[in-house]
Design goal:
The chain is 56% helix and 11% strand. It is of the alpha/beta class. α4 links the parallel β4 and β5. The chain starts with a strand and ends in a 7-residue tail after the last helix.
Length: 537
């Protein structure tokens, strides 16, 4: 801990200088930063120096000590104040105590008395600092994963399935401040070009982005699905373009600075002035996001951009169709990385990108054959057994109408993604089971981390985090802490081991931090729990 800053306010110069000079401040861990003869002169100096301890007389000209204390404590609530006075009037002491003053000393103040008092104050400051460090450490451990646990709320928010009153009530329960007069959404994903899940480079980029977004109250990060995230942007409606551009620039900058073979995409919604308008905003962003499958070399999509640049109608003939837009990899990539939620948007934009009017009937059938072949190839690449894949065109008329073609395309893609997700779920379930077994065997290790579990499970940390939260319903940190607290409770009730021993046994090097976390999670101290002063429901 840094030296504790001390300021003295005393109108009698002999007393003020005596206090300043008789105490070897540095020896006791203090730094003398200034003094003043009265409260009026002291106040601006205190505001500038921000001392940790104020030693002040009560009776001074211009502004007395009690008045100074009231102002200082309202502006610096953590400051510790020591009152000195030549008066033994209990009323002064009563008023000082009511203000929260630490000590009240009568003149003449001896060196021994002052040293005793400042050491007591130092101990309180040290304990408060330690407590604040524990709070910061606790928040750092949990905050990174906190927003991911809000996924269910945000899913309902963007679905439009809650009333405005329900939105505010649930947001309040989750300690989310959604108050603003303007909102927008940015959906983004970052992944390694050669893998279906996050690799180390992508994980590093995502980790860095998480940290940046959490620094800004204008941005609320949440997970859309296993591999995509969304940023809810809130603020003054006139500032939304600026806030949105800054959000997209963050994503672009982090991805470009990685100098890796990353696939990254971001899509921007249309701003809204209402919370109830976020479902439409999300639909706009999701529709633009679907264009990443059609234009994989582009990175940023907006509703305006895709409407004016990418969705230009062609003539109605087969010859007018851009051959590049028939690239089979477009369909195969969507089967690999698309989601059920964006299937319909993708199908509509895929059809619109081919031709603005109706395609010739035979061409539709030819295109459907090509699509089904490539869907089957994509599924086989994803490890789906051939016996599970049914891409037969039986029962489909070669003279297929436009609406039937659209419905068939959507149905084909949905079936494919459902198969892919089911297979992925089987694999992911095995991975999570393995990860949980590892945690169950190693949660007592102080250095257990998401990274160490990911290495043991042969998967990237961010992908593991996503799957873990989805299956277990808790973040990695929450799960490990829950295991540790359960074991600690058993040891407290069934053994006579000291709290420090139990802390070490369940993975905490610092027994005081263990006690802090235990109280946070259970509502009582370890000793209270052991003595039966707290019974779980």
């Amino acid at each position: 801990m840094d030296n504790i800053k001390v300021f003295i306010c005393e109108d009698e110069s002999i007393v003020r200088e005596g206090l300043r000079d008789m105490i070897p401040w540095e020896k006791y861990g203090f730094e003398f930063v200034g003094d003043a003869p009265d409260g009026e002169m002291a106040l601006p100096m205190i505001r500038s120096l921000k001392p940790d301890v104020l030693i002040t007389d009560i009776t001074m000209p211009f502004m007395d000590g009690l008045s100074l204390c009231r102002v200082v404590m309202s502006e610096l609530p953590d400051i510790k104040i020591i009152i000195i006075s030549g008066y033994s009037d209990f009323e002064y002491a009563r008023q000082a105590i009511s203000l929260g003053v630490e000590q009240y000393l009568l003149k003449p103040v001896t060196k021994a008395d002052m040293i005793k008092v400042i050491e007591e104050v130092k101990q309180k400051i040290s304990e408060a600092s330690e407590q604040q460090n524990y709070i910061s450490k606790y928040e750092q451990e949990f905050k990174k994963f906190e927003r991911f646990s809000h996924r269910a709320f945000f899913e309902k928010l963007v679905e439009g399935s809650m009333s405005v009153q329900q939105i505010y009530e649930q947001a309040n329960e989750l300690h989310l401040n959604l108050s603003a007069n303007g909102y927008n959404l940015v959906i983004y994903t970052v992944r390694d070009a050669e893998q279906s899940s996050y690799a180390d480079d992508a994980a590093n980029v995502m980790e860095s982005l998480f940290g940046h977004f959490m620094q800004y109250p204008d941005y609320i990060l949440f997970r859309c699905n296993l591999l995509s995230y969304a940023v809810l942007i809130k603020g003054e409606f006139e500032r939304l373009p600026e806030l949105t551009d800054r959000c997209v620039d963050m994503i672009r900058q982090h991805c470009e600075e990685a100098h890796s073979n990353l696939e990254w995409y971001a899509a921007v919604g249309v701003p809204t002035k209402r919370l109830s308008g976020l479902s439409a905003c999300y639909s706009d962003a999701n529709r633009a996001f679907a264009y990443r499958h059609l234009f994989p070399d582009k990175h940023i999509f907006t509703s305006e951009l895709v409407r004016t640049k990418y969705n230009t109608p062609n003539a109605g003939e087969v010859d007018s169709i851009d051959a590049a837009k028939l690239d089979p990899m477009i369909i195969r990539n969507f089967v690999r990385t698309g989601s059920l939620a964006e299937t319909e948007s993708f199908a509509d934009e895929y059809i619109a990108s081919l031709d603005g009017t109706e395609n010739p009937i035979l061409f539709r059938y030819y295109l459907l054959v090509s699509i089904r072949v490539n869907v089957e190839l994509a599924l086989r690449e994803e490890g789906i057994p051939k016996t599970d894949i049914d891409m037969s065109l039986s029962g489909i008329d070669m003279e297929i109408e436009a609406d039937e073609f659209r419905n068939n395309l959507i149905d084909t893609l949905r079936k494919a993604i459902t198969l892919r997700d089911a297979e992925a779920m089987k694999r992911n379930s095995d991975i999570i089971d393995s990860a949980m077994r590892y945690i169950d065997n190693h949660y007592k290790d102080e250095d257990i981390s998401l990274d160490s579990v990911a290495i043991a499970s042969n998967i990237s940390a961010n992908y593991l985090s996503a799957m873990f939260s989805q299956k277990v319903g808790l973040s990695f940190v929450e799960y490990v802490t829950k295991k540790r607290m359960e074991k600690a409770k058993q040891l407290l009730r069934k053994t006579d081991k000291r709290s420090g021993e139990i802390a070490s046994e369940v993975g905490y090097k610092d027994p005081r931090y263990f006690s802090f976390v235990f109280k946070k999670k259970t509502g009582c101290t370890p000793s209270q729990y052991r003595n039966g002063e707290y019974e779980e429901e």
